[in-house]
From TrEMBL:
Domain of life per record: Eukaryota
Protein name per Swiss-Prot or TrEMBL: Acyl-CoA N-acyltransferase,GNAT domain
Alphabetized GO MF terms: N-acetyltransferase activity
Span of the signal peptide: none
SUPFAM superfamilies in UniProt: Acyl-CoA N-acyltransferases (Nat)
Length: 163
């Protein structure tokens, strides 16, 4: 089900699930906006290794597009102007993804460094211990908005749809 939102600037966009045919466009979007603008990616200079970056996205991020928890913001002319990729974490789920386990021996150490850092933050946050009545949570893994469309409520609409 799609939700159409009109922003204060009278530009409208639609929020809809990401579907399998969106994969290539979403990957291009990630390269153009998320991996270029995200502070950890900038500090690790990931865009300097664009070929390896593409392989990493295809290997590790496409599964987030297929889990039913990924959404896109689409402009009236059909362009994707924002995306959110989410994952579901369940209490006592032994299926936790660790970047060290996912990556092969030839995988990029810059990704391992970022993944190890994010895994440590998640472990130390220890949400299920802090909130004993919570049995599952949605984790926003990636959220990004087209640079030319920022400040129009797209990110908020993607988060609202995630809720």
């Amino acid at each position: 089900m799609s939700v159409t939102t009109k922003t204060e600037n009278t530009r409208s966009f639609t929020i809809a699930p990401i579907i399998p045919t969106d994969k290539d466009v979403v990957i291009k979007f990630l390269l153009k906006f998320f991996f270029r603008d995200e502070p950890l990616n900038i500090s690790m200079e990931l865009m300097k290794e664009k070929d390896h970056l593409l392989g990493h996205i295809e290997c590790h991020y496409t599964k987030l597009m297929d889990n039913g928890l990924a959404f896109k913001a689409v402009s009236p002319n059909g362009d994707i102007v924002g995306i959110v990729l989410n994952s579901l974490t369940v209490r006592n789920d032994n299926n936790e993804e660790k970047i060290e386990d996912e990556n092969g021996p030839d995988d990029n150490t810059k990704f391992k460094t970022i993944g190890t850092f994010l895994d440590k933050v998640e472990r130390e946050a220890d949400v299920f211990t802090k909130y004993p009545n919570v049995d599952r949570l949605i984790d926003i893994k990636i959220i990004s908005v087209d640079e030319s469309c920022r400040g129009q409520g797209i990110c908020k609409a993607l988060i609202d749809k995630t809720k």
